Automatic annotation (TrEMBL), chains A, B:
Name of protein: PadR family transcriptional regulator PadR
Record domain Transcription regulator PadR N-terminal: where: 15-86
InterPro entries found in the cross-reference section: Metal_resp_DNA-bind_regulator, Tscrpt_reg_PadR_N, WH-like_DNA-bd_sf, WH_DNA-bd_sf
Pfam family, one: PadR
Gene3D superfamilies on file: Winged helix-like DNA-binding domain superfamily/Winged helix DNA-binding domain (1.10.10.10)
Amino acid sequence: MSTTQMMKGILDGCILAIIKNKEVYGYELAEKLEDYGFSNFSEGTIYPLLLRMQKEKLVTSTLKKSTAGPKRKYYRLTENGEQELQNFIERWEILQTNVNHVLAHETKKGKGV
Amino acid sequence: MSTTQMMKGILDGCILAIIKNKEVYGYELAEKLEDYGFSNFSEGTIYPLLLRMQKEKLVTSTLKKSTAGPKRKYYRLTENGEQELQNFIERWEILQTNVNHVLAHETKKGKGV
DNA sequence: CTCCTTTATCTTGTATTGCAAGGTATATGG
DNA sequence: CCATATACCTTGCAATACAAGATAAAGGAG
């Protein structure tokens, strides 16, 4: 059991949520996720994931010049992506409900963290 | 993105939580998890997971006769298992906080489910 | 007794996905 | 030309959920 495993299938949703608000590029996205508290994850995670999401038509990308390096690839949500984000939110809420229900089963015995 | 992927590393914690309260056997555990709302998962998920947890010394097992079939293997938490359950709860709370923070970023735009 | 159903466990193989490690490309400054 | 920072990509590995199928024990029908 590790934090790694708990991220499976959840990072996707978080990325969709961030992109929805405004165009972002990969490097920037990684920084934002760190700000949100998702630590210890590398570019080896984020770039393959973005490419996968583009292949699934959840996002589109546009190259734009940067002032300080190679071109940035900005991502934007497609309609499919918005739908998928909504699906993720619903699944996440159900998951939270179920897991918290199971844990309440345990913490009711008195183990306030 | 699927429900399957979102379960990674989370099922472990839920199982530990259920076992903590009272000895249960695999088949029974599967039924309980379904009651808690975890649908669509099979014995091919639960038995390998229980064996893995036993190998990691998180649980111990005892065989007991059943009135209606082969022997049942009852599982019980070890001290390591209790510790791991506490670790899981902490990780789960952090994950919830982070993901909900990201989603608030999105839902603030007005999309009440 | 033999066959079938229900209960209960285990094994094998596959797909998904997070991540470390390492590689490539562009702009600026010495 | 070379070093550094920014930015992106590829390869290979490890963890794990699950479908499909095998095994085993007990009770009832014929």
